[in-house]
Amino acid sequence: MICSRSCADGQVRERASAHQWAPSNASDDVWPTPMSWLRRGALALGVVLAGPLLAVSCEDVNIGRDWRTADRSSAGLAPLPDSAPEAVVQVYAARAFNWRGALAVHTWIATKPPGGDGYTVHQVVGWRRYQNLPVVVSVPDLPDRLWYGARPDLLADLRGAAAAAAIPRIEAAVASYPFVREYVLWPGPNSNTFTAHVARSVPELGLDLPATAIGKDFLTNGGVVESAPSGTGAQLSLYGLLGVTLARQEGLELNVLALNFGIDVLRPAIKLPGIGRIGMRKPPRPHPS
To answer: What's the rounded Cα separation, in Å, for the pair 198 and 185?
Structure first.
């Protein structure tokens, strides 16, 4: 009896041990359940929507604003021509008009030659396409106007000889922009595509366009590989919808459906859709006169 019970106990332990190490059903371990996919999708959607919601609550984003009465005055960021006889080149970004501002910014470039009595503003204005007009505009204007109520941020600032040398190259880049009569809000070509195109032609700007500049990753050379807008690295982009940028100024950026996620190691910060940069603030890159 003792021997039989001992043998039975040994068989039970052996079967339990075998069951413990037996491979489980592959479908349970490899394939996520529908609920698991739902949780992952909800988490991804939450990450994407958190930025726009925060932008609406904290940034200069006013849903439902009337463009006819929106503030278009100077933000007081650009030097007055009378007080700055040297050449000036500046790049600005402001939250896009109305609901678009929850996700994206509009960017433009302002130039003033040495001794000039005013600025020329170079930008793409999408609504002109509906009037069968070229979307690229280069006209005398205030360089630092509020963009229909949204206060601009200064992204780059060249002065003196460096600015004077850059202005002809900026004008040539404006003339070479290939989408003069094309505008697509998402994923481009749009106003940020234009600014990135000019920046690549003038690497002295060292322009790090914000993560909220949707359209900056839409390449204008007809390929999938190009230099980063700052000229300090390279990027791979598929029609502005999917890609990666690695550069000294931009850091590492991933583009997913034209939404940018990134990390800047040199000036510690992360970049998120709708919010932009979180971390050490990056001042505009000045240049001595």
So the answer is: 19
Enter the tokens of residue 167: 């202005």
Pairing mode of beta strands 153-159, 285-286: parallel
Assessment of whether the complete model's pTM goes beyond 0.70: yes
How many other β-carbons are positioned within 10 Å of the β-carbon of residue 35? 8
Residue 286: name the closest of 163, 174, 166 by CA: 163
| Strand ranges in the chain using DSSP code E only, listed in sequence order | 88-95, 105-112, 120-124, 136-140, 153-159, 225-227, 233-238, 242-247, 251-256, 259-264, 269-272, 276-279, 285-286
Q: How many CB atoms lie within 10 A of CB 283?
A: 10
Judge contact between 262 and 253, C-beta under 8 A: yes
Query: What digits encode the pLDDT tens for the residues 158-183?
Result: 999 999 999 999 999 999 999 999 99
Element at 6 (helix H, strand E)? helix 2-21
